[in-house]
């Protein structure tokens, strides 16, 4: 899907939404790497290796504790789920999260994950800012790219649009998917049960409606 040399097609790495970009008071941008790996090992000095992948155009991480016990994978591509680009601001290279605002107030916005310009998955997001409600809809990862963590990245990207919101899902992913990502969701947040029509209708008809603004 992204070319014969793609790391996702040959010897692919899993993706972890553990990176954060923070703006300092002086205006500088700092990249914050995770404190633990997805398996819970500490990533202090000498406990991990951080590098850069030209193929993904992204930071990568190798956990030495995972590597020592031959756990596969021991390395991950790191993604900041809140770093989402407008379609006209993308580079067209590597791994990118692209945000598409809704075509109308009656439609949901979409967050897409791309690999070298090709869509690898997406999630539709409905938000009501007044009531601080959010609904995940139509979460989908293309079959060749499943089991690399892209679904988890899309969920994290959607949740970053409404921090502190009450979230639910109208998407039909298997219970095993939600169980697998449950340890990585914010405390007290439970997803995976299909939302009733009342919640969806409220988000659709609220004064803010289903709006997903792209960053300027």
Brief synopsis:
The chain is α+β, with helices and mostly antiparallel strands. It has helices at 64-68, 150-159, 175-181, 197-205; strands spanning 14-16, 20-23, 29-32, 48-53, 58-63, 75-78, 95-100, 109-115, 118-128, 133-141, 166-169. The strands form 3 sheets. A 5-stranded mixed sheet has the order 7-8-9-10-11. The chain has a 4-stranded mixed sheet with strand order 1-6-5-4.
Question: Can you lay out the helices and strands and say which pair or pack?
Answer:
Layout: E1 14-16, E2 20-23, E3 29-32, E4 48-53, E5 58-63, H1 64-68, E6 75-78, E7 95-100, E8 109-115, E9 118-128, E10 133-141, H2 150-159, E11 166-169, H3 175-181, H4 197-205
Parallel strand pairs: 1-6, 10-11
Antiparallel strand pairs: 2-3, 4-5, 5-6, 7-8, 8-9, 9-10
The CATH architecture term is 3-Layer(aba) Sandwich
Domains, number: 1
| Tally of helical segments | 4
Radius of gyration: 18 Å
Shape: globular
The CATH superfamily is known as: Gcn5-related N-acetyltransferase (GNAT)
What does this structure look like?
This protein is an alpha+beta fold and 216 residues long. The protein has one domain: Gcn5-related N-acetyltransferase (GNAT) (Aminopeptidase). Helices cover 14% and strands 30% of the residues. The protein is built from 4 helices and 11 strands; from the N terminus they run βββββαβββββαβαα. The strands form 3 sheets. It has a 5-stranded mixed beta sheet with strand order 7-8-9-10-11. Strand 2 and strand 3 form a beta hairpin. The chain starts with 13 loop residues before the first strand and ends in an 11-residue tail after the last helix. The N terminus is likely disordered.
